[in-house]
Structure formats: structure tokens, C-alpha cells
Amino acid sequence: MPSVLIAGCGYLGAATADLFCEKEWEVEGWTASADSSAALSMKPYLISAVDIGSREAVTAAAKDFDTVIHCASSRGGDEQVYRQIYLRGAQNLALAFPQARLVFTSSTSVYPQTDGAWVTELSPAEASLPTSKVLRETEEFILGHGGIVTRLAGIYGPGRSALLRKFLTGTATIDPGPERFLNQIHRDDVASALFFLAQRALAKAGRTFDPRAIYNVSDNHPRTQRACYEWLASISHRPVPPVGSMPAPRRRGNSNKQVSSEKLKSLGWKCRYPTFEEAMRESILPDFERPGT
Ligand SMILES: NC(=O)c1ccc[n+]([C@@H]2O[C@H](COP(=O)([O-])OP(=O)(O)OC[C@H]3O[C@@H](n4cnc5c(N)ncnc54)[C@H](OP(=O)(O)O)[C@@H]3O)[C@@H](O)[C@H]2O)c1
Q1: In 120-248, which ranges are E strands?
Q2: What is the pTM of this model?
Q3: How confident is the model at residue 251, as a pLDDT?
Q4: Is 147 near ligand 1, meaning CB less than 6 Å away?
Q5: pLDDT tens digit string along 75-105?
Q6: CB-based burial label for 58 (10 Å; 0-12, 13-18, 19+)
Q7: CA 166/CA 164 separation, integer angstroms
Q8: In angstroms, what is the span from residue 151 Cα to ligand 1's centroid?
């Protein structure tokens, strides 16, 4: 039975752990806090509170795993916080699990392009924000250890959609100025991409440096913010939100690009929710109060 450690069992990590478990992998999940571990105690796999930023804690909890997925999130924070969770976390995991294949959940925010063009894994990723630079450093560290880097678009899914929440609470506004693309991905499609890549890597012996082991994970159908709100308005017979007076400050910078996941798709990964509209209809809206009611 292959084994996986999900280091960071949060919104994405718990769904990923569930999927690996369903596929009969031996699974262990880590959270930062004992409260989060306790909240997951009903899961059919072991959950522990282990701070990946602490070398001692990670070393003390280390066992043999085939795959270790770094899925912990800084939940914002500055460069120092990023360095602690992402880079130091990756270094500690690499040290404690020298035999395991490391997988890092990075972000499409490393692409700084502003012209709205399509970007692939070969496009420049010369991150401009200090936080994105730490992600790039972590990516290089992971690749240097024969690991796999996934660059995730904005994650949404059951119980988590900032667009829908703002739309339904009447707090949504459309950013003024030039339209930007939103690159999105349903949580369950990220989980399936991580499983797909882990299983594929298992078939390959050894951890050799592969600079091409970077995969964008997006639904491949970017939408503008306006298009998303117009669609939500049309299906709920509500007005389209007004244009705001100032663009909301963006934690991930002012990039504007369309992120391609053709590379992953060409290997055989299939998206269950290939568009915002399908994800909303089939997975997310049923969980929220129906618009218009
Ligand atoms: N959300 C997005 O749109 C998005 C986009 C691109 C990339 N990503 C990446 O995807 C990954 C997962 O994101 P998410 O949205 O699922 O995050 P999340 O819901 O905030 O969950 C984060 C998890 O990491 C755990 N964690 C935080 N610090 C830790 C530490 N020092 N040691 C061990 N565990 C720690 C948290 O535990 P506690 O609950 O105890 O704090 C929680 O279980 C992250 O790497 C994130 O950067 C996310």
C-alpha cells in the first residue's frame, strides 16, 4: 500500500487526504494546531498537530512515506511568514523524509505577467512581490530535491467561494478599469491533480532533479470578474453588482494572465469541473442558500 503525508490538512489538504484514502493509500495528515487536528479526528486516517516550521517537531514525527505533500498555508502574512511556512517547511520535510517524493502546492501568483496573455510552465515566473519570490525559492528547492511543483490557481469549492459570498451578501463590486482574468480551480480538481501526479511519480524510481516537474493546475477557462458576476446575476435574477470606486487591494499583486493547464491535461489528468459555471451549478450553489430565495 503506497503511503502519503499531507503536511497541511486544511481546506485543500483534507479533501486531498480523503481522496488518497479512498484510493487505498495509507494516509497521515498534519495541521499546525491541536484544535484543527481535533476537528478532523473523525477521519479514517491519523491526524496530528506538527509544526512543519520546526525542524525538531518534524524530525520527531517522521516515518516512512512514499509521497509528502506540502499543503500548509501561511493564510497571508509577510515575507517572513512565507519563509517560515513555505521554504523552511519544505527544508524540514526534505530533511526528515529523504526517501519520499516531495510535492509542493505553489501558486500561479508567481507569474507576474500583466498583458492578459496565456502563460504556461515555460513562461517567465520572475515573481515581483517579496512573498512570490519566497514561493519561487521554495519551488527551486523542491525541484532540486527531485520533487514536483504544482502552481495552483485560486481555489474554490463547497463552502468556499469569495465571489459567491460577496454576490449573495450584496457586498460585491466590479473593479473599475481594465478587466482582469480570474484563474480558478475547484478544490476537488486540485486533489485529483495531486493524486494523479503522486501516482505517476510512484512508477518512476529515484528522486532525480527534473527542472520540468512544474505543473499549472487551473480549470483552463479563465473568466473575468464581470463575467462571473453577470452569470451569477443571470441565473439568480438579481442585478449585476455595481462598478466599485476603487479596485480592491490585491494580496497577490496586479498581474493579469490566463493560466494554461494543457501540460497536465496532455498527460491524462481530467478536470471534473472545467468551468466556473459547471462548478457553481453542480457543486457549490447547492450548498449555499439558493440565490433569489
Ligand atoms: N486557497 C487558494 O486559493 C490557493 C491558491 C494557490 C495556492 N494555494 C496553496 O494551497 C495550499 C493549501 O491551501 P488551503 O487553502 O487549503 O489552506 P488552508 O485551508 O488555510 O489550510 C492550511 C492548512 O495548513 C496547516 N498549517 C498551517 N501552518 C502549518 C504549519 N506550520 N505546520 C503544519 N501545518 C500547518 C493549517 O493548520 P491549522 O488549521 O492548525 O492552522 C491547515 O490545516 C497552500 O500551500 C496554499 O498556499 C492556495
Answers
A1: 148-152, 154-156, 181-182, 184-186, 214-217, 223-224
A2: 0.95
A3: 60
A4: no
A5: 889 999 999 999 999 999 999 999 999 999 9
A6: buried
A7: 5
A8: 14
Architecture (CATH level 2) of domain 3-287: 3-Layer(aba) Sandwich (3.40)
- Give the tens place of pLDDT for each residue, 205-263: 666 667 789 999 999 999 999 999 999 999 999 999 999 986 655 666 678 999 999 99
Per-domain residue ranges for the chain? 3-287
Per-residue pLDDT, averaged over 265-286, amounts to 95
User: b/e map of 59-89 (b: 16 or more CB within 10 Å)?
Assistant: eebbeebbbbbbbbbbeeeeeeebbbbbbbb
**Spatial distance between the Cα atoms of 244 and 260, rounded to a whole number of angstroms:** 29
pLDDT, residue 6, reads 98
Q: What distance in Å separates the CA atoms of residue 257 and residue 115, rounded to the nearest whole number?
A: 6
H or E stretch including 56?
helix 55-61
Q: How far is 46 from 229, CA to CA, in rounded Å?
A: 40
Nearest CA to ligand 1 atom 12: 71
How far, in Å, CA of 41 to CA of 235, rounded?
38
The protein residue whose alpha carbon is closest to atom 32 in ligand 1 is 51
- Distance (Å, whole) CA 104 – CA 139: 7
Q: What are phi and psi of 181, to 5 degrees?
A: -85, 145
Q: What pLDDT sits at residue 292?
A: 45
Looking at residue 15, its amino acid is A
For the record, the C-alpha cell of 88 comes out as: 523552511
d(CA 275, ligand 1 centre) in Å: 24
CA-based nearest residue to 93, from 127, 57, 140: 57
